[in-house]
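Hey all, sorry for the wall of text incoming. These are the two entities for the joint prediction.
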Amino acid sequence: MPQRRHFLRSSSAMIALPALESLGFRAFAASKPVAVPKRAIFLGFGWGVTQETWFPDVRQTGAQWSLPEGLKPLARHQREITVVQGCSNRFSNEAHWGSTFWLTGANRYAEPGQSFHNSISADQVAAAGLGRDTRFASLQLGTADAANSGHGPGLSLAWDRRGKPLAALDNPVAVFHRLFSDDQTPLSQRQAMLRQKRSVLDAVSEDAKRVQQNLSRLDQDKLDEYFQSIRDIELRLSRDEDWLQVPKAKPPLPQPREGLSGREEIQVMYDLIVAALKTDSSRVITYRQPVGTLLQSLAIKVAPHDMSHYTPGERTTASQKRDQAQSELLAGLIDKLKASKEADGSSLLDHSVLAYGSNIRTVHYLDNCPTLLCGGGAKLKQGQHLVLPKDTPLCNVWLTMLRGLGLEVERHGDSSGTLSQLMA
Amino acid sequence: MPRISFALLVLMLGAAGAQGQDPHGPAARLDPSHQAFLRQYCHACHNAQKQKGKVRLDDLSFTLDSVERADLWQKVLNNLNSGEMPPQEEPQPRPEAKATFLEALSQTMVLARRHLSDSGGRITLRRLNQREYKNSIRDLLGVEVNARELPADGGAGTFDTVGSSLFMSSDQVEQYLALGREALDNHFSRFIGSAPTQVTPIHIEAEASNARIIKGYEQRLDERRRYEQWTAAVDAAAALPNNLALAAELRAAKPHDDTHWYGQWQRIKGAPPPSQFGFVDATRADHSGRRDWLHYVPHHRAYVEHPLTKTGTFLTIDDAYINSRQLFRLPAEWPAGEYLITLRIAAMDGIPRARRFVEFGPQHDSGVCAVASTHEVTGTRQQPQLLQIPIKLQAGGPRVFMLRERGSHDSDGLANRLFAEAKQRNGIGPEFNLWLDWIEAKAAATTPVKIMRQRREVELHANAMVGGTYKGYYQQGAANAQAFLDGKRPQKGIPDETEARFRLRVFEQHGPSFDRYLKDPLNQTGAQLTIFNAHTEEIIALPPDQPSGWLKTKHEVEQVPAGEYRLRVRIAALPDTSKSRHFLEVGSRAEPNQFNLIKTFEIQGSLQQPQTLELTVNLSANSPRSFVLRERRDVKLDNAWYNETVKQTKVGPPPALWIDWVEWEGPLPAAGQDEVMPVMKLAQPDPRAILQRFARRAFRGREPSAAYLDKLMLLHEARRQAGEAAEVAIREPLSAVLASPGFLYLAEPQANLKPTRLSGPEFASRLSYFLWSAPPDEALLAADLNQPAILEREVRRLIASPKSWEWVSGFVPQWLGMERLDFFQFDTTLHRDFDESTKAAARREVYETLAHLLRHEGSLRHLLKSDQIHINGLLAQYYGIEGISGDAFRPVTVPPDSPRGGLLGMAAIMAMGSNGQRSSPVERGAWVMRKLLHQPPPPAPPNVPQLSRLEGRLLSSRETLAMHQEQAQCAQCHRRIDPIGFGLENFDAAGKWRHLEEIDKRASGRLTWAIDARGQWPNGQGFTNYFEMRNQLAAMPQHLARGLAEALVEYALGRPVSFADQDLIERMVESCARQDYSLSALILALTSSPEFRRK
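and here's what came out:
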């Protein structure tokens, strides 16, 4: 791709400019209109919501609906958010897995002989299309508190095209350094290091060939994960090579403190999401949020699982406080997405699509998954309350969104089609 | 289409089953009796003609043998569970009938899922999990890596050894490369090259930190002075005539409220601003000049004026200006390795025992403290103790450490509350308690301590004892008594006739037993154990303990250090005695006449061929040093038997056991102290040989390929050309080895892709990763494991090794589902002393118990009921058991009426069955069904309607749970789960024993009720209380054994248990049952099975 290389090299000199404007400038420099890039953000919160106070009244649909208590903090953004009711992943049976199949819609038992199966998640489909021109094709963010937050198996919200879990960065400081810390070594040395890395990969692949001999088909598949990992690193190295002369973006925020958890952790991760998008470091981001430590930071003593089984009284209060806090945090994120301007004066939010939800509605309910969409990036209707027929595949939402992002996707998970009601 | 009758279907399936040998075993099948339920409530709509919702159920097979069929049944289950089917307008099943059907279907689904997801007993190639990776690096390089940097081993509810759920990703490979390099750099700096960095011990006087505290105190005094000046000035201005009216008005608004009054200074004309007195504003002035002065300063003053703060510090609670944590820093240049921290510390008199514990741990750069260990302080003001804490420093790891009072900082509010309560009590603040004199740190001795061995020929001491007692007390006593009776003159020791007659009687009764002992020629070469007189026990005493006569034996040391010791005894069973008496008990003794059983041996040696028994014991600094050997006894019965025998034969029962000698050896090298084999020598030529040798070790005995070595050499040469020294350049290819599949995967290739036996190194790896979560050592790789005797010896060696602690701490928590212990913070207002330290000790109790069973051939019965528990001082205090102090866990015998003893009596297990606030009979009942009864209830079903009828009412647990019985969807499982949990209601959420439960809800009031622990088992057998429940449970160890057997197979083979394993599991349980449900027997049955060595 000579053109892209050229493009990158020509832009490297001005990368220190505030990044979004520089994108416009790049377009100008290349004297070719470059569309403002599209972005996708997926935020998953495990244990579901308080259904009585989180979902809008089903009788108020379309653009005229009033915000329920749990979404009140989002009032200033009501015109940008769309709440979709009625969707579910029909194969989901695990009452404590709020994220494992949320973006994939897979059937755990689809593969005879295996106790666990998953398929590609919507964000990775998006990354395959949107992630080509950024330093990171996609970013997976997570939390050290995952086990306690009702997410179920997995390492992040993301699953690759073979249905294997993708690892997450689960500490804001690590995210910060991944995005913004530059390697200070001179270029020639870094080039040598890349070569060296390739030789290392070459050597370990040689041993993999030895191990591969006489393996059963099942084991071959397993070892294939290793080969695939090596190929992925090679791809990443090529990408690194492309980006070798481009310094990392200047961080638009200071390095976060160590040891953040709960509410503060989510807030800082949201800031990092905005920073990553603003600097165009990545265009597809998932975040598997903490719930357990969120409760602790709100001084809620109820255990997260118990909260999800809210009975009247303390647990319900806890559950509602959680909804409030999560909505407040989300509202803050949307504020920042709105405030970040593209070169043409439009906002980051105008070109992004954000999905916010969980595979668990509440308690052990896996139907009517809470789904909130926001932003203009995928040409979805904004400011709506849609009540779809019961058990509409959640993957129809993902499919509609992916197509809206301009990606040629035939179907996703168990999708049965796109949702015209959702398309602007 | 006519419906195939069920009988025909079964027939067809039967034929198919007989024909092929289905490796999956019988399919999951719903009992045909449930056909009636479907016919009555479903078929009317879901039949061939109507097929409502495109679902047809009339031809749905009751055999769930395919994914599609299981999915359809799952839908049936889901719809019944959610109450959507049958539709409201249709006839509804009776709740009981619905529950029965749901129960059967749920169970069948569990079976079907297991069946369908069963990969036919094949083991998937698997990578090392985090624990195994860490241990493998440790054994290979002698350094610790931070394996937590690797992504979590996310399993789908399986063990962390199950290959199919251990994934690999590019991030991970890169982390392996980075961690491997770090470990190698560490290895080179510690084991290769120039002399290691000199570590000069450091000594820190604690009172050095008092300067800061005194300065803070003076600052507070100064603030108070300035506050007084300012307020006096405000008061003076208010007293001016033009302010009088306003002042009166302000004072009347909130009388006697200084905060309010001085807060209004701006309105008072002429009043000076607080800034003039050095305060930012009035609020700040009020806080430091008044509020803190009243609240904190009395405590601060008491600290500064306390005589003991001249020579040391107190660890205080709350007030951050004093000493809520004592920090100290170790030199940054100290290399990674093992170090020893010594504290001189004391607890003050009259302080409750719960406060005599100190927490120790690192403080990270972020200021976050982690408690690494908790220690009981036994030193007193008069006699402070030296407390030793061994630590491991990691390269780049924290160098700042803290000490603080246990539990005082577990949650944000707790320290405040403790302070406020004390203030209420004494007007000052928490009593000063833990006093610290100084801290020392030095490198731990790297040269292993000298191993000592001491053998004692027992006859010397035994004959002296028996002979002395006989001659002195019995014989001479009888002679004197006779003389007294003959002459009626007082004799030595015979003051009167009563004594004289008594002496004659006991001589007649017991004398012959002594006489026989002394005349027996066997006493020339050893000692005989008798059940009563004359010689009931032998003792192995490690210094400083000594049996009498010890002084005649040469002893090398006054006191043996803590560590592992091996005890040996050469012993024989005597001819013509009953086989039932050929058992030797070994126990420890802390006080005279005490006996804490450690292990019982069956004696097979004879006088012609005595046997040598071995037992490894772990000694802590203050655990008992005496070990008692005796014939298996029941003291009460033995007494009667002895007396009976004397009556009949004039002499006691003949001895059944003979001991030649006893010995002890130790301290044995500890885990991780295996000799580290340096990767290379400095200036060693031939890098290829270095790489080959290292790869072979890293690959656990497999040979690397030549092509691979070529490529490693290329890496090496490239680094050399880049100018790196030989011993640096080689680290690049070495770290590649540590990211290669040969190291990362436990591969077991099959030559012709057919099941075969494991090769020697593969077998060794499977064993060592099973029992150690670590690679095989040289001895295991060299052993001929095809010989059953050698295999058994090696398994026993692996079990006896301290490395088998990995099995305990790795397998046990996963088996018992203990991750739940970390799922919530305990509410410290309700369960104050269940703090982090107690939680850690409670977790450790489970591990220590299992470790004890594992290493001493203990019976699984002890997990159900036991009179022996394993606790340390902290837990003893928690459980209210007297007389146990110190940090070491040790076996302690509890009386039969103690609720402790067995898993259900452990605080950790009970705490898991709670939500941190209240006990949960549901969690506990389900846990008992899963782990102890081997009847796992189906997982919580999705989409069951929430019960909300009793909203807002204050109900006891039993009343709340009674609601489960109202709805069939709930009742199907809860009618079996909840009644078990009720039996455990005498344990509160934190595992403490209680008779009353109380809930106090601000909104709805308070309710107290007496615990009613009646309940029943799923089979209908009832119990009236916990003790009865425990007894009934103790009578059914087979369920626990089966569940454990399945877990072991899954963990050891790294794959889910399949139907094909039923035979293996059957054999394991049988073999285990034959040996009184011994845990090690269960493990040996697995390791010696053909399945274990097959791939």
